[in-house]
Amino acid sequence: MSADTLLQALLTAEHAAVYGYGVLGARLDDTTRPQARGADDAHRAQRDALAALLVGRGKSAPPALAAYDAVVPDQPAALALAIRLEEGLGVRWRDLVGGTDEVDLRRLGVTGLTAAAVRAAQWRAASGVRPATVALPGTPDD
Amino acid sequence: MSTEGWSPSRRTLLVTGLLLPVSACTQPAAPRPPAPDVGLRAAAVLRERDLLVLYDRALAGAGVRTDALAALRAEHVAHLVALGEVAASSSASPGPASPGPASPGPDSPGRASPGPASPGRAAPQPGVAALRDAETVAAAAHAEAVLGASRGLAGLLAALSAAEAVHASVLA
Predict the structure, then answer these.
(1) pLDDT recorded at residue B85
(2) Alpha helices in chain B (DSSP H)
(3) pTM value?
């Protein structure tokens, strides 16, 4: 898979994350809602940066879908969705690192994976998952 | 058989041609430089082992944070497994905390290599701040190593870097 295809997959995932945080944030309490707001801001910025990067590389930037499949009836579901969003993005960032020899893209991938891993750990902690950390962030579920 | 008409240059060429393969067999080939991954992987292993030493010392008197630190320590063991340094069947749980510098040998699963036994005062127990700083330094070093690694190793080093950064954040 080319680096540009991996970047497009990342942008698609960021679109989904922005949508997802918009939905799950409404189900969170006052303690965790600021965390979601911060994550949403980060994902919007990352989405815009990826779109600009793809255009700069002469590639198409996939648009967001009109809606995504995100059913969030309560706070536990909202926290679970946040964890899934960050873990999914972590896999894609790690794919980018291992899918290119371009130094700048690898740096971008490490930064993205780290940010996703930190947020995933914070969401696990908020949902009471112990331990909140995982040994190898970005490892896909088998 | 007469050698008249036998061109010395042809003889020279023939002898040289016979000697060259023999000389090539007797002279040692120039050593190939090691692949970059070899050094990068070894350096990553060293970083992980150094972290394990710190966690072992911290766990010797961790008190209420024993479970939390033990969980992070277990992830560093998993890192060594991923780097191919420890068998996957080795226990991820810490061994008994060592009160002094003496500890199991370097091949003991789940334990870092001990330093030389010190006849004097034992090394001071690292606090959470020292662990956090060490994790931060390791995260940066793994991230730097990503840039020169093969694709396969780069992904793993990126995961190690992210894991150490997460550890630093939970130790804050």
Answers:
(1) 86
(2) 8-26, 36-59, 66-82, 128-146, 151-170
(3) 0.81
